[in-house]
Write a structure and sequence with these properties.
The chain is α/β, with parallel strands linked by helices. The protein has eleven helices and 15 strands. Helix 4 packs parallel to helix 5, helix 5 runs antiparallel to helix 11 and helix 7 packs across helix 11. The longest helix has 20 residues.
């Protein structure tokens, strides 16, 4: 078997917990170090994985055992942590969004190129196998050209426990920075053409959660096709209902039984400190790896309802396959259940670092997605169509 990549983790918060089942079970990666300001998180990580732990990210990046760094720190620290890892010659997997400004994103790409290291942006749901398989099916030409893509996702995102900066758009808070990156990535993956311009609207209708909680965007593509993206995190309708009550992580949900839990839970956090404490309980530290294990019948991850309208069929990625609605009949292209959740992230990272294969989710890819996210905010603010110049 190939030697696994030796991985260092910067940030043991919520983003890390989503990737933890992947890193802990994938044979091509081994977690050897982590940094986090929280003592309980460091102590548990050292105990569970027999790994080194550091309070500061610089000490982790300087460690000679670390080959690749996974940057899972809060959004506002991404650029500094990428520059730090690059200074020590470490390959980088950085959480989305890669940065908060285009200038920061371009700086990341430049420092990675100068250091001759690989820079990948993710995870995002465009790594999920149903979307990758749909992209392959489109590429065969069997269904004609893509003419329209419709993406719709309704969740309880805004009412999950948040730190104050997660409710501050200027600090990278709100659904556009955190969730549009997923949806934009999926749409870009499935479109053979590049985005040309967009017009968007955003919503902020709860003063107690003072950031964007919803958006809708219309994107025009270079070949004349177009895409419609809508997202709401206001915890009312839930598009998992369209996915057979499969959750975003591929797990079976309780459906109606769990309705309203996010808002109900948040009422118990009566202060900012109380909400931060609730947020920390959802991060790695107070509980260990078993708390984040996805049990039972596992399907593939998803990001809501996505329909790709081609000239001769509509294609709909699902947690267990791709539904094909053709001219005269419909059928399901089934996919095997995943053995390791989000394995595709490590597969692409390993191929890039060890086998020197150009990654799909490169720094340039992440910059193109970031440009669209920023354009959604700009278009909504200024009430006009925004042209795009960084698309790949």
């Amino acid at each position: 078997m190939s030697e696994p990549l030796k991985l260092g983790i910067i940030g043991l918060g919520r983003a890390f917990t989503l990737m933890l089942p992947t890193f802990a079970s994938h044979p091509l990666v081994k977690m050897v170090a982590a940094s986090d300001p929280r003592v309980d998180a460091r102590e548990r990580f050292a105990s569970e994985f027999g790994a080194k732990v550091f309070e500061e990210a610089q000490a982790l990046c300087a460690d000679s055992d670390v080959e690749t760094v996974y940057v899972a720190s809060p959004h506002q620290f991404h650029v500094d942590h990428v520059k730090l890892a690059a200074r020590y010659g470490k390959h980088i997997l950085i959480e989305k969004p890669m940065a908060l400004t285009l200038a920061e994103g371009k700086e990341m790409i430049e420092v990675a190129a100068k250091a001759n290291i690989k820079l990948l942006v993710g995870h995002s749901h465009s790594y999920d196998l149903p979307y990758l398989r749909t992209r392959e099916m489109i590429g065969t030409g069997a269904y004609g050209r893509v003419r329209m893509i419709s993406a719709l996702n309704f969740t309880d995102f805004l009412y999950r426990p948040r730190r104050p900066e997660e409710l501050d758009t200027s600090a990278g808070g709100g659904v556009v920075f955190s969730q549009a990156a997923h949806q934009v990535d999926v749409v870009r993956l499935l479109s053979p053409s590049t985005a040309k311009s967009l017009r968007a609207f955003t919503a902020n209708w709860d003063a107690s959660r003072p950031t964007e909680g919803a958006y809708t965007a219309q994107i025009g593509l270079e070949d004349g096709s177009f895409a419609s993206l809508t997202y709401s995190g206001y915890a009312h309708f839930d598009t998992d209902e369209f996915m057979g009550w499969r959750g975003e992580l591929g797990q079976m949900r309780e459906g109606e039984i769990s309705y309203g839990r996010a808002r109900q839970g948040l009422r118990n956090a009566r202060t900012v400190a109380g909400e931060i404490e609730m947020k920390n309980r959802r991060a790695y530290g107070p509980t260990g790896r078993d708390a984040f294990r996805v049990e039972g019948d596992l399907a593939h991850n998803h990001f809501g309802l996505v329909i790709v309208s081609c000239e001769r069929a509509d294609l709909r990625p699902l947690p267990h396959g791709i539904a094909v609605y053709g001219d005269e009949k419909r059928h399901l292209e089934e996919l095997p259940s995943p053995k390791i959740p989000r394995a595709e992230v490590v597969d692409e990272l390993y191929d890039a670092v060890v086998r020197n294969r150009p990654p799909l989710h490169s720094g340039e890819w992440g910059l193109a997605t970031l440009e669209i996210c920023l354009a959604i905010l700009e278009s909504a603010k200024n009430g006009r169509e925004i042209g795009l110049t960084c698309q790949v």
